[in-house]
């Protein structure tokens, strides 16, 4: 085999382990030469693929706009796929421009609809919603997602265009459900009668009643169940079937839908969740944008993310993706150190296929800052962190390689009682429940289900969600409760539930009679959902519940967590100290990915539920080390877990004897709590190197601080500044093998050299590097730290001097509050090495 020759299986695996990115084609004003140049940049930076989204255009480039799906567009798309193959980059494609699906081919007959009441009758009218952020020529009505015939008509356009190309995307994509106010379709009444067993118009009074009487609740449950069925069958299954017929995979963001997210995610190949905004982790030194409006946009939540990963785990889908880093902070103000904790949270929630949001296509010849998408974060070549993005990409690739190769190792299945949610007042437009990721406090967290899952998470239980539909597909083996995708669980937990379908109770009884362990929180449900023959069906529910409660493997528990403990369901009790984790298995090895996204844990002896030989793999350094172990007070083997706020790594527990690579370190316990650090307080020389505006200042400062105060115009400088000092080796014991260099507060990335030799680059919290003791001289050690900051300070100047860079159609440029972008009002952002810088011996 020749070096560099394509290796399809290996290449694809490596490709999927790397992070991918949204790639907005602004106005589709693209050409082959620039596509090739940008793809080559992406490949060098360590990206694995691109997701093309045609979007609104740039003023002044109208003659270069290419209509979506015309021959010229298909030509440049085919070129992109070919170049992607050459470079090892995958290509996905949004099936439309902007979002949601819609556009010029969508007539009023197949457009999104809502019901209206006229002369005592339910009639159909258009929502009139237009496609959001369309590419030129992509304007038009939004599609009716509840209509199978509408979907079939919509995809025909791709049969005669995209599908005839020899070069095809890996996957087609649908964005988060943002069809606002749509709550109806032309044949809704017929579908309702066929699926629910009665005519909705006979219960019109109850349907319109907002006082939440029992009858109105039951009718609303039926109404929502019908919408959910139509969305699953009319859109998701129809679209997926069409895509599979053309050998495309399907990526889908089901969140925001008026349906059961688990079932919608379960239909597709790659379920995709979303991380929008900042989670506001209490990690010391982690900055959040003060202008981000939590009440308006919400914060990322692990429980919302688990709908996608649960569906994948139960159905055996190997990939779970996420839109990552959307509006993490304002434009030109996002750092790599802010992105990493959000990625770590996604990993612990079961995501293993990161998609950055994102990179705007921008001609290489375009002056800085190039073409910019209205929503931050920009991961592209014009970003201030682009030179160091390969470090984050490498970290993600190492993590995702392990996460994609391993299988879920969760013990608990938690039933999602969606009928109880449908019994509550809807808070979305059109009077329907839209299960969005932004505001879980509106629909998820107030429910007993959400409250229980928060406690399971805090107490260290590994769990997935299960829907009514997937309950029907569970079986029981000697290993436990088996999902259709091959995942095995030890127990099903039924939260406090009021309404439960008879079929679900029958399935629970079937599983219990086969030996499945089932724990009911509080009491068994007593009501059937839905209006049809409700009294008789509820009587059947009560009888089924009584029978179920008497079965040997079923426990109706007044103390759920005590029952879980008595049932020997594994719990990682150390998670209660503020740690997030995911536990997975690969053959005879259990992988723990553990992230400290709080400020409560530093180091401690902990007992893992998996027992065996433990090693630690750090994806930041790509090093595997042995873990110090001991026999704990209760006889369990314990490991010494040292994990500072902001850190994350794998602990691998093997039933076989662990073998370390030759390059592995055999360091002793790195307990730094009793070691006295040396503060490097010598005067520091500060030299401005490269950046905007050009500065050549060089100053000596007695103490570290933001360079914005060190020289004239420095508060506008964006670029790299060198901090250097000299120090003597600390006096210490001869058994010191290395030192820990702690840079303190770094704004934003620090490349470090000691005596002319690189120590590495610190780009995430905590900003620490290891210093081999052999690299220190007794006296006169020279430490050089090149710090690169954000581009925000220069944008303060540039936006005043060159405001015409904001030349985009549609929404043009807005800030994090969706107000017109104006960086000229910003205050200087602290930049440089703020310290303190310390050196601590490691014994």
TrEMBL record:
Pfam families: Glyco_hydro_106
Keyword Hydrolase tagged: yes
Coiled coil: none
SUPFAM superfamilies the UniProt entry points to: Galactose-binding domain-like
GO MF assignments: hydrolase activity
Top-level taxon: Bacteria
InterPro entries: Galactose-bd-like_sf (IPR008979), Ulvan_degrading_GH (IPR053161)
Keywords: Hydrolase
Record-given protein name: Glycoside hydrolase
Organism encoding this protein: Spirosoma liriopis
């Amino acid at each position: 085999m020749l070096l560099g020759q394509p290796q399809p299986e290996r290449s694809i695996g490596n490709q999927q382990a790397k992070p991918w990115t949204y790639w907005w084609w602004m106005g589709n004003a693209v050409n082959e030469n620039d596509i090739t140049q940008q793809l080559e940049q992406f490949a060098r930076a360590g990206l694995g693929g691109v997701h093309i989204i045609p979007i609104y255009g740039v003023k002044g480039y109208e003659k270069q706009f290419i209509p979506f799906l015309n021959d010229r567009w298909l030509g440049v798309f085919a070129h992109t796929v070919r170049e992607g193959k050459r470079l090892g980059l995958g290509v996905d494609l949004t099936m439309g421009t902007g979002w949601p699906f819609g556009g010029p081919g969508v007539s009023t007959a197949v457009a999104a609809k809502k019901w209206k009441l006229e002369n005592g009758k339910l009639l159909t009218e258009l929502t009139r919603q237009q496609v959001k952020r369309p590419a030129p020529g992509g304007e038009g009505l939004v599609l009716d997602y509840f209509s199978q015939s509408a979907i079939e008509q919509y995809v025909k356009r791709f049969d005669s265009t995209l599908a005839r190309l020899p070069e095809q995307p890996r996957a087609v994509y649908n964005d988060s459900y943002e069809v606002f106010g749509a709550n109806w379709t032309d044949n809704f009444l017929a579908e309702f009668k066929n699926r629910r067993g009665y005519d909705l118009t006979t219960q019109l009074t109850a349907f319109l009643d907002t006082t939440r009487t029992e009858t109105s609740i039951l009718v609303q449950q039926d109404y929502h169940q019908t919408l959910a069925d139509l969305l699953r069958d009319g859109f998701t299954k129809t679209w997926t079937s069409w895509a599979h017929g053309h050998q495309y995979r399907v990526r889908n963001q089901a969140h925001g839908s008026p349906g059961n997210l688990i079932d919608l995610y379960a239909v597709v190949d790659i379920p995709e969740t979303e991380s929008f905004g900042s989670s506001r982790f209490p990690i010391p030194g982690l900055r959040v944008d003060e202008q981000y409006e939590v009440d308006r946009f919400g914060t990322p939540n692990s429980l919302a993310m688990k709908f996608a990963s649960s569906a994948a785990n139960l159905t055996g889908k190997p990939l779970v993706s996420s839109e990552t880093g959307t509006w993490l902070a304002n434009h030109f103000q996002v750092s790599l150190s802010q992105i990493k904790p959000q990625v770590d949270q996604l990993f612990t929630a079961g995501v293993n296929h990161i998609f950055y949001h994102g990179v705007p296509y921008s001609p290489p010849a375009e002056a800085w800052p190039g073409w910019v998408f209205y929503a931050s974060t920009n991961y592209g070549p014009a970003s201030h962190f682009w030179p160091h993005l390969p470090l984050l990409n490498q970290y993600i690739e190492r993590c995702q390689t392990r996460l994609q190769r391993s299988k879920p190792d969760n013990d608990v299945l938690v039933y999602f009682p969606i009928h109880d949610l449908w019994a509550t007042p809807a808070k979305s437009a059109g009077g329907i429940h839209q299960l969005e990721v932004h505001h879980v406090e509106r629909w998820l967290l107030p429910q007993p289900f959400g409250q229980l899952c928060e406690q399971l998470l805090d107490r260290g239980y590994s769990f997935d969600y299960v829907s009514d539909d997937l309950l029907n597909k569970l079986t029981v083996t000697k290993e436990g409760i088996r999902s259709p995708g091959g995942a095995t669980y030890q127990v099903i937990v039924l939260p406090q539930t009021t309404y439960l379908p008879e079929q679900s109770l029958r399935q629970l009884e079937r599983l219990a009679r086969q030996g499945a362990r089932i724990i009911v929180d509080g009491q068994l449900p007593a009501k059937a959902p839905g209006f049809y023959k409700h009294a008789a069906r509820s009587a059947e529910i009560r009888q089924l519940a009584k029978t179920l409660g008497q079965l040997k493997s079923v426990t109706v528990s007044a103390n759920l967590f005590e029952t879980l403990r008595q049932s020997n369901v594994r719990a990682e009790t150390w998670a209660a100290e503020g740690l997030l984790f995911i536990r997975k298995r690969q053959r005879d090895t259990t992988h723990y990915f553990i992230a400290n996204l709080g400020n409560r844990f530093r180091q401690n002896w902990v007992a893992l539920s998996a027992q065996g030989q433990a090693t630690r793999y750090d994806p930041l350094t790509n090093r595997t080390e042995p873990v110090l172990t001991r026999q704990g007070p209760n006889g369990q083997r314990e490991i010494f877990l040292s994990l500072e706020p902001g850190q994350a790594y794998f602990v691998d527990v093997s039933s076989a004897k662990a073998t370390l690579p030759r390059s592995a370190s055999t360091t002793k316990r790195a307990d730094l709590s009793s070691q006295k650090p040396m503060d490097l307080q010598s005067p520091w020389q500060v030299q401005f190197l490269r950046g905007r505006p050009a500065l050549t200042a060089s100053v000596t400062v007695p103490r570290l601080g933001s360079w914005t105060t060190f020289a004239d115009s420095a508060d506008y400088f964006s670029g790299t500044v060198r901090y250097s000092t000299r120090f003597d080796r600390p006096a210490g014991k001869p058994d010191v093998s290395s030192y820990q260099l702690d840079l303190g507060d770094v704004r934003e990335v620090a490349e470090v050299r000691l005596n002319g030799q690189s120590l590495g680059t610190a780009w995430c919290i905590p900003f620490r590097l290891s210093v081999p003791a052999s690299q220190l001289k007794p006296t006169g050690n020279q430490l050089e730290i090149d710090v690169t900051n954000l581009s925000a300070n220069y944008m303060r100047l540039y936006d005043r001097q060159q405001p015409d860079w904001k030349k985009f159609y549609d929404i043009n440029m807005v800030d994090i509050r969706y107000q017109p972008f104006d960086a000229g009002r910003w205050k200087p952002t602290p930049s440089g090495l703020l310290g303190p810088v310390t050196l601590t011996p490691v014994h």
